[in-house]
Amino acid sequence: MIGVAPQQNHLSAKGPGYWVKTILVEGLLLLGLIASVFPFYWVFVMSTNTTSDIYRVPPKVIPGGNLWTNVTNVLTNMDFFQSFANSLIVSLVCTVLALFFCSIAGFTFAKFEFPGRNVLFALLLGTMLIPTAGSTVASFVIMANLGWIGTFLPLIIPGMATAFGIFWMRQYALSAIPNELIDAARLDGCGHLRIYWHVALPALRPALGFFGILTFITSWNDYLWPLIVLNDPRMYTLQVSLTSLKGVYDTDYSMIMAGTLMSTIPLIIIFFLGARQFIANISAGALKF
């Protein structure tokens, strides 16, 4: 009874304003959750109905029974599994390379002194101001001169190191990696690569988790650049291949929504798997430091 009384007094001390604020915050979070989940639910609903059902007024808001038919039409009208494999290869390779190069560059900018470091970092940030559409023509000319058009190289090589990725890793490394830890590693005879591998990478795992998810999703959803540089339908990524489902005179939107749903499922799986690891690493980092 002695240990329970202070807790009861503490709860009773919370006035109506506290509960109103709590209900308001929880309500806003619930609305945000609904707004985030509803587009995925709506795509699922449209993919389980027919195109005529999509145009109904009022629209149907419950799933129908046409999902398997739409999925079968998708598999019949496009080489889904080949395009899926192409997207998976490009996204995985691009993600792995970006994680390595951006993390080692960000770690170097954050913890090592070298001539021109601030100037180079300022130039790097300046490239973030250039819109993607403004550099598309120049990038295509470079890729054509290198003879890479029609291959996966234009989708992978330019994404190996991004300005945002290096900036993100640098900012995280500034606070996550103590200078004393690096000095201790140097006293033990570690070179730059060993310090990066044994000191920087364990501390950067939460940042790597976030950036890996972001890079994979960005590469998977990329449409314009693969459409420009790929000229063989057998090498089309999934987002480019989905455009073949659109007819010239008539379009089966329920089939397109089914294809969109099928292309979204891997992203949802990757996000949930990566998010769990991301949150776990944040907790471990907080306890460690």
UniProtKB/TrEMBL annotation:
Keyword Cytoplasm: no
Domain of life where this protein originates: Bacteria
Bilayer topology: Multi-pass membrane protein
The ABC transmembrane type-1 domain, residue ranges: 84-274
Segments passing through the bilayer: 23-44, 84-107, 119-142, 148-169, 195-217, 253-273
GO CC annotation terms, alphabetical: plasma membrane
Subcellular location per the Swiss-Prot or TrEMBL entry: Cell membrane
Keywords noted in UniProt: Cell membrane, Membrane, Transmembrane, Transmembrane helix, Transport
GO BP annotations listed: transmembrane transport
Xref: InterPro entries: MetI-like, MetI-like_sf
Chief location: membrane
Keyword Transport: yes
Cross-referenced CDD domains: TM_PBP2
Homology family: Belongs to the binding-protein-dependent transport system permease family.
Record's protein name: Cellobiose transport system permease protein
Organism annotation: Thermosporothrix hazakensis
